## 1
Amino acid sequence: MNQPEQSSILYGRKITVECPATVANLVCGFDILGMALKDPQDLIEMSVSDQPGIRISHADGYDLPTDPAQNVAGAALLDLMQGVEESVGFDLTITKLIKPGSGLGSSAASSAGAVVAANQLLGNRFSQKDLVRFAMAGEKVASGVKHADNIAPCIMGGITLIRSIFPLDIIQLSAPPMYVTVVHPQIEVRTSDARQILRKEVLLKDAIRQWGNIAGLVAGFLQKDYDLIGRSLEDVIIEPVRSILIPGFDEVKKASREAGALGGGISGSGPSIFMLSREAATAQNISVIMKDVYDSLGIDSKIYVTTLNNEGATIRNLT
Ligand SMILES: Nc1ncnc2c1ncn2[C@@H]1O[C@H](COP(=O)(O)OP(=O)(O)OP(=O)(O)O)[C@@H](O)[C@H]1O
Ligand SMILES: N[C@@H](CCO)C(=O)O
């Protein structure tokens, strides 16, 4: 290969990045709040060469596009490449364990993971904020809109607040230890569809209630006040519309609250539902409740009992 001698580009090396699932919105914070989970995670293997172009393959059964402009990972890399002067190309293999259309940030895991891997191979020349900006180009391909509420926690870990995307202003929030139970009923809800059904106007009385809840939730995280977190996990704007797309939603929510969940709701644009708990045993009990609800409806479901992921997308291997 024809490589510049002093380059900090890691030609000939191969990197593996773990890209976590994320829960966007956190019930009341549509498009502005999100958190990273320990489980599930996608994997991206990537190498850099002096052969221009982005070559994508999938080691999973999801039949996603490999054209870089159509695959969210490729779209994010194309955006990143606009800031790279050298003539380089990337080869990547994506192994998806986060099912597309799940509401668990499947698209964000690929776009965020791709730019984290590329940045490492390019000698860490970009900031985390730059990476969030590039990865949002992937979200635009997936849902038609740039939003960072999955991307930011996927890259930075923990819980993030997107105060603004133009210009990008991201605040990382501390939070007390919490367990997360997630059920993914095996139906697909595309984010683009789940956005189209939303009303474009909001009543002032609903807006007042919603921003009270958002402020309460953020204060609850920062003050480690579980009761305040629980009281604030309420959405009077998006959930009443979107929950109609999710069979079993009301039953899961009611039974989980009765079993001691702090609260929860739709994960991202659905159909996954998440519940936060203070204790591991409560989170386990809720997983049984969730399974029972979907078994009784005759719908297959996949359940995760997990915790917050404070690391975000992580480099596991560099060979
Ligand atoms: N690498 C990729 N990973 C996942 N989805 C991809 C990828 N490339 C393209 N897509 C497309 O993005 C869409 C899935 O994204 P979508 O936002 O609907 O689901 P999600 O990321 O699971 O949901 P949410 O953002 O609510 O958590 C599908 O249309 C899929 O074909
Ligand atoms: N905030 C986004 C997350 C899903 O990608 C939505 O709810 O549409």
## 2
Amino acid sequence: MTFKPGIVVTGASGRMGQMLIRTVSDSDKAHLVGAVERAGHSWVGRDVGEAMGGAPLGVTVTDQPLEAFAQAQAVIDFTTPDATLEFAALAAQARAVHVIGTTGMTEAQIARLEPAARHAAIIRAGNMSLGVNLLVQLTKRVAAALDEDFDIEVIEAHHRHKVDAPSGTALMLGEAAAEGRGVALSEVADRGRDGITGARERGHIGFSAIRGGDIVGEHDVLFAADGERIVLRHVATDRAIFARGALKAALWGQGQGPGQYDMVDVLGL
Ligand SMILES: NC(=O)C1=CN([C@@H]2O[C@H](COP(=O)(O)OP(=O)(O)OC[C@H]3O[C@@H](n4cnc5c(N)ncnc54)[C@H](O)[C@@H]3O)[C@@H](O)[C@H]2O)C=CC1
Ligand SMILES: O=C(O)C1=N[C@H](C(=O)O)C[C@H](O)C1
């Protein structure tokens, strides 16, 4: 019989949490062993399937992450930066693979994952979909092929509830463009233009964010020169693409030693 890793989903009631619960419980390659929510949340103590408005799944939502992680081979975590830092330490203690989809982490917060990654595999990406990770590779190639006559702008659109900007995906695309050009993104990023900004600086990479309605996630990388434009675009219409990628990462992580990985490693791109 093939071994099926046990998976805990954190942020179980969230937009991604619910999608992940469905994806893991429908999978024949893994099984759901835990669902974590923050203390005081109305779902704590309830069966997660029933809380989602469906049939019981035999998993009670808990606010005790370490107890849940101790039963699991992987934790899939799409929550907040503070919660993710707490979960990284606990997943490392439980020697469980930690798949992190949470965005909006600062450089200082990302650096704080390092001690946990000495004990368990951490797989982190601002976007877990195959399409976006392919777009990242294409962006790097196009940026490397074009000179600074082409202005690079990353434009993203998301639903009205999103709390961080630029999106994690936009930052991945910006990093890829900067890498293709052989520059550090921190040196050339233009984030949040407003007022008399002055003319666009040659070689800079701009970011713009749109927020509204129920947009799942749309990303354009624009290369604009005099007389022509190239646009690389990804449009997400269903959060299932992120959940499928996260589950793939949790399964792939079973064969890995401690360390930090991303979806390029998982997908072999
Ligand atoms: N990497 C990727 O492919 C994707 C990443 N995301 C990111 O995932 C994150 C979550 O997105 P959504 O699901 O839309 O947000 P959401 O707000 O719907 O869900 C977050 C959930 O985390 C829970 N939570 C917060 N603190 C917690 C704690 N200490 N313990 C347990 N649960 C806690 C909240 O109660 C909530 O249910 C965001 O950072 C978003 O940008 C979203 C989609 C795809
Ligand atoms: O918050 C979201 O919804 C999404 N967040 C990720 C991001 O910040 O790029 C991925 C996806 O675009 C949806």
